[in-house]
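Input/output pair, single chain:
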Amino acid sequence: MKIGDIEFRKEPLFLAPMEDVTDPAFRLLCKRFGADMVYTEFVSADALIRNVKRTEQKLTIHDEERPVVIQIYGRDTDTMVEAAKIVEAAKPDIIDLNFGCPVKKVAGKGAGAGMLRDIPKMLQITKAVVDAVNIPVTVKTRLGWDDSSKIIVSLSEALQDCGIKALAIHGRTRAQMYTGSADWSLIGEVKNNPRMYIPIIGNGDVTSGAVARQCFDNYGVDAIMVGRATIGHPWIFAEMRHYLDFGENPEPYSFKWQTDMLVEYINSSIEWLGDERKGIVHSRRHIAMSPVFKGIDNFKQTRVAMLRAESKTDLLDIINSIPDNFNVI
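Output:
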């Protein structure tokens, strides 16, 4: 499989773009554990051209994480083109256009998945960005706005005609947000459309190597994008790759090994943000959400304490107080 001139191994696994999750520290961990390509947090085109510092910070990438994708979103063609040129100067391997974010503050303003209600504008933006930059442009979107407008099959052809080099599809509508189950049948229909020749990347509810194997086998996608299942669990890529290659789950990592990885992420977040408290605030939610702690009796109070931790010492004391005499499923 290739996207532009970038060649991937068979059945690649990609880290999905997630706000407040896919920062450089997290991406580097995922890359270490076998993610074949990583995406930045999504970047507001409006904020980028207004030189908002926090937004510009999202353009920070490292050679160790390549191939890396910077994803942008917006609702105005000229703004998206200008933002794409700024992003190109940051030297990512790919620029991705976000036409799938369902949250109200994005989709409600016509950007992200809001573009599914204005297909002509979506296509206009896509074509304009493709023409404006010299690196591959890809798109991530959803099945449609709601159950009555699942237009992804025809939309995929139209986006391909705009010149994109790959298409990632989340198997839900905007109306679903993240509820219900992802519908991979329509993703498979896009992939099996004889008119489609660009790579199709499937996304939605891929939580294990076994699920990834089913999605590759049943729907024929070229790659799989993994999102929420990676939070607090960046080594899931190693586990999935082992299953894809050998048909079985690997031996589980020890509890201490897993918590050591979480501590490494805390330290990396502090280093990236240059401030202990900011690093703790940024990382503590992901630590508290980690499946590492699944199965611990009466863990709710400990999770709340993690979410309230104000210093590295406090957070590490909480983690170190958890008994390690069990294996995580």
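The first helix runs from residue 24 to 32. The radius of gyration is 20 Å.
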